[in-house]
Amino acid sequence: MIRRRLWLLAPFILFGPAELAPALDGVPSAALPATQEWVDEASCQSCHAEETTDWLNSHHQLAMQPATEDTVLGNFDQQSLTSDVETSRFFRRDGGFWINTPGADGKPADYQVAYTFGLEPLQQYLLQLTDGSLQSHGAAWDVPEQSWFHLYDGEAVDHQHRLHWSGAQQNADFMCVECHTTGFQRDYDPVANTYSSQWQALGVGCQSCHGPASGHLQWAESENKAATGKGFEANLMGTVSEPETCARCHSRRMPLDNGYSHGNQLLDDYLPVILSADLYEVDGKIRDEVFEYGSFQQSRMHAAGVVCSDCHNPHSAELRAPANAVCTQCHNPTGKATRAGIDASGLQAKNYDHPSHHHHAVGSQGSQCVSCHMPGKLYMTNDLRHDHSFTSPNPQQARQLEHSDACLGCHQQAEDQIVAAFGQWYADAQPRDGGYARDLHVVRQGGKGAAQALTRQLERTDLADIRRATLLSELPNYPSAAAQRAVVEALSSSSPQVRHTAAGLLGSLVTPNQQISLLTSLLDDPVRAVRLEAAWQLLQLAAESNVEPQVLRQLISEYEQSQRSMLERAESQFNLAGVYQLTGRLAEVEPALQQALRQDPTFHPARIMLAQWHEQAAGDPAAGMSLLREGTEQYPQDPSLQHAYGLALVRQSEYGQALRALQRAHELAPEQAEYGYVLAVALHGNGQVDAALELLRSQVQAQPTNRRARQALISYLRSAGNQVEADSLLTELAAQNPGDPLL
């Protein structure tokens, strides 16, 4: 049995919001304990005047507002915007703000703006739909430039595209509103396919972070002030609790349920992403839009006990001090931290705000700490986000490892001079990451000594948890006895993120019997994300071992409940279809997949699984072929559909058509190792030996860690009598990983 991939839900990204029925401010959520209820946010203001003053008119307070004359910043006086594929018109009618734009059917229609989203440098707009939902339109208002722009201009985002404003990825109820309101409850009715979501208050208010305040009000009015947490469910103060509270919104993560519970660990409610190559650079700096938490987690600041509020006023979200002064709270000639609780052992008594350190004119951009240690990137076209890993520039390393660098970024026309000058200014400078960037670069490039570099980093005791989890994810490319030990030891880590990552890797490195024993012990893990991953992995193992369906259902009950809390998502319906299949509820498989496609026609894994279901379980291969063929016609640029269609044609012995489809999949996504490998096998099986060899050679050259392509190439070369080249490939593998079982 082939293990089916678990599809995680889309991470929190400001693609745009979805549906919301009119909010009922002041109505407590029935999902919360009766002892802790939401209260009117105004209740906080009488006692906390200073905090309220800071909060008023902040980006947090104004994160989401009803569309009115005072809140809408965009120009709706008969303006228009044309992207590469669509035109939208902005106008006023009946005292409201409207956008005429192509909808889900591709036909232009008028949609009323219900809420503004964000404040600056851009403002988005949520459109109210008839099913109670809000969707975030792709057009945004550039506040500094006072002009309209499209977030996805040039990306062919029309009504069939996954990022179109009318689709599931722009559904604000699920994607966005939780982090722009207080006390949000997403109320989706799967039978009617409607929303009646509610919130306690618009904007990020006191209770968004502190939790429902009814207990706190009771504490404030009582004579006994000894209550733990001053009547709140959770204490926000702490090197773990405060950053995790902020991370609920300021991280790239996948939800595990319908919202969060105050007092939970982060991984009880969300699964933050690790430092994957598509999201982060090899030295840990941001690449894609990941917000702040992942960067900060790996920083030396975090390791020293610095928390978000040491630099930011938590109520206004502004810096504690202007410009460099926020950094020189600690990094100054005294060598002392700004407060107790921060480990100051790494601080040097030095004037960092002097040209002798930064080598730029005082007051210039280059003299600013953030320019060198928190370089920014633009996301959503004009929104500058600063990196929070607090790395130090190293232009020589940047050129060697091909990652970005603050010095080289500013001085692009004089790279050689900058490298030389940096070497003179900081002659004794050494990377402060313990060789992490260099070793990870070797690991991802499949260079000589890659497996040893991986082991060397994993043996460190000072490695940040998110970096450890990231390194663990590379182990399947370097299987060995050492890799087995590393992943098994990681199951006992104090970090739930490390345990979660390790649980998902066991299938690649240890035997099924070992997996069952190790994963079973994780079913009682104190953190939900770890339990869910262990259950999913065990479910597949148990299914292969012919365990009774009722036992499997009990095993997967918590995971199934998690998916049922998000039934509006195609990913959840797809995951549930897998559960139904593995637990013997075969009559429920197809309806779940059909529902997934109704909710998101662009979620192609559901289409592929449904086609396979028709072919293999329902005994109707013609229906499966028709489904895939229609998919390739409707979405000709999607490689996964072409690949699945090609494999289906192979099973029907239509080899000529199959090769064309597999070739197309590889052309659309040459970076996908699976597509290249399958195409090479198909070519070889069709007698096109030279073409197969050439393709595999290019695969191995482009992806030296691709063991399957390397193994196939070695086998085909030997069959062709080319033992010399085959031995050379084995020699390269031995240099990468002397413990590889292939050797």
Automatic annotation (TrEMBL):
Domain Doubled CXXCH motif: residue ranges: 307-334
Domain Cytochrome c-552/4: 169-211
InterPro entries: ARM-like, Cyt_c-552/4, Multihaem_cyt_sf, Multiheme_Cytochr_ET, Paired_CXXCH_1, TPR-like_helical_dom_sf, TPR_rpt
Signal peptide region: 1-23
TPR repeat residue intervals: 639-672
Pfam family, one: Paired_CXXCH_1
Keywords carried by this UniProt record: Signal, TPR repeat
SMART domains to which the protein is assigned, alphabetical: TPR
Keyword Flavoprotein: no
Protein name: Cytochrome c554 and c-prime
